[in-house]
Amino acid sequence: MYPINDQEYLKTCAEIARIMSISLSSAKKKVEIQISKLDSKTIEDKRKVANKVLTICLKEKESGLSSVKLFDDLMESLEGNDNFLVED
Fold first, then answer.
1. Is the C-alpha dihedral spanning 86, 84, 70, 11 positive or negative?
2. What is the mean pLDDT of residues 59-78?
3. Distance (Å, whole) CA 10 – CA 28
4. How many other C-beta atoms lie within 10 A of the C-beta of residue 58?
5. Burial of residue 13 (number of CB atoms within 10 Å: 0-12, 13-18, 19+)
6. Is 81 helix (H, G, I), strand (E, B) or coil?
């Protein structure tokens, strides 16, 4: 898939990246995957897909299911069970 340089599309992807705390390229990749699944061809269709992904991200953020919270929960260690190497 060739890069999309539409300003509205990129702005939507930037908002997705901000909400999910990921890079812009990762957000664009998530949207592009959805675009390819739906076989969208026109830029208007691609904008609609990006807006749909943004809406889903906003709903997840409101309900407390944001990727940041999930990642933080996964990174917490159990008390007294820090399983990582301090030295080699």
1. positive
2. 65
3. 8
4. 14
5. buried
6. strand
